[in-house]
Amino acid sequence: MLINQDFSVDRTKYIGGSDIGAILGLSRFRSPLEVWQEKTGKETKKVDSLPLRFGSFAEEFVANEYSHATGLELLHDESAFIHPEHPMFSAHIDRLVLGKGIGSAPSKILECKTANPFAMHDWGEVGSDEVPLPYLCQVAWYQAITKIEGADLAVLFGNSDFRIYEIARDKALEALIIQKALHFWNVYVLKDLPPPPQSQADYQSLFNKGDSSKSIEAQAETLELTKRLQLLNGQIEVREKEISLIKQNIMSQMGEAETLHYQGKVLATWKAPKPSFRIDSKRLELEHPELAMNYRTPVQNSRRLVIKQIS
Question: Is a pLDDT exceeding 50 seen at residue 35?
């Protein structure tokens, strides 16, 4: 089923293709907890970065390159597909590949990606379905919702390597993904219960405010963990000192030289970066306290975990 609407403002009502990799714990950029926070309205911050903006900008170029390489006509329809049995599951397709003949139905899904050339080891042979698992699951999600059998994933590495991967429909994978998404929606979103945190950032986000009136007794296992943590921190300090001594040795050899060579190859550089400018807030407060007061804003710092030494 297709719906016409501004899909971007309704992200809290649906699980989409960009969510499924995170829900499955496969994403390097988002955790299941972050998706849960978005779907329950607890955190609606817009995910923004240069790679994401470039990927969005380059989508049209990648689609055009696909059309040029294959000779196939594409349809750019910004409507959202909705799963026939689960109306909270949606698919926002990059492009639909039209079949031959006037008025023919879409024959394939086209997903457009850009990728770092240094990540090529995550991809298999051109024309295969050996693509990073989050992308494979995203395509399977779209096929499960649209029931379109074929899918191509077009990817541009850097600005010189364009590839097309072919992904056949895998109904077993689709069923597994739908099952996981249903569990996430019914157990976590509808019941407003957070999924298990998977990182320190998740814990900071979930328990961002402390209660000074609360104190708990540690378990014996936790005591051993704190001792282990202190041991590891001690080892880090030793390594950091060793690293510092090595750097000092190299700096003493270089002196005023900015480049260190060995048999024609650059071993190290020691250069000053380009000058940057910042506001001298202390001087501003001293010389213009009334002006500085107008621009003060409270900053909520994250909770800081400090492990105490127990003798």
Answer: yes
The b-or-e profile of 95-120 (16+ CB within 10 A means b, else e) is: bbbbeeeeeeebebbbbbbbbeeeee
Give the residue numbers spanning the domain of 72.
2-206
Which CATH number characterizes residue 53's domain? 3.90.320.10
201-217 mean pLDDT:
90
Query: Looking up tokens 């157990």, which residue turns up?
Result: 187
Nearest to 154 by CA among 288, 52, 59, 238: 59
Kindly report the pTM of this predicted structure: 0.77
Torsion of CA 98, 103, 105, 107, to 10 degrees: -30
Spatial contact of 168 and 267, defined as CB atoms under 8 Å apart = no
71 phi-psi bin (left φ>0, alpha ψ -120 to 50, beta other) = left
Is the CB of residue 53 less than 8 Å from the CB of residue 45?
A: no
Question: Other C-beta atoms within 10 Å of 186: how many?
Answer: 11
225 in a domain, yes or no? no
